[in-house]
Amino acid sequence: MIFCVICPPMARDDIHFRLRLPEDLKSKIEDAAAQNRRTMTSEIIVRLESTFSREDVPADVRGIIDEFVHQFITSLDKRRPV
């Protein structure tokens, strides 16, 4: 099951706030945003929204999805140059 969310443009009345992130997480978000041709804000929003949409998925199915995603990301990380 793949979740696809198109992030709408930010409106002037959207809330603006500062967020502290560990440097390695910020780098991962920057990389993912670049790969997906999104801003960092859009990347974060898409990822957050996808976690909320998963709440409707039964727990056992979420476990299968989580394991698949973990294995997939691990395989990608192994291919990524250090």
Key phrases:
disordered N terminus, 82 residues, mainly alpha, 0% strand, 3 helices
What is this structure's SSE topology?
Blueprint: H1 23-35, H2 40-53, H3 59-79
Helix pairs in contact: 1-2
Textual characterization of the structure:
The structure is a single chain. The chain has 82 residues and is an all-alpha fold. The chain has three helices and no strands. It has helices at residues 23-35, 40-53, 59-79. It is flat and about 40 Å long.
Shape assignment: flat
Rg, alpha carbons: 15 Å
Order of helices and strands: HHH
Which spans have pLDDT < 50 for at least 5 consecutive residues?
1-5
Mean pLDDT: 79
What is the compact description of this entry?
The protein is mainly α and about 80 residues long.
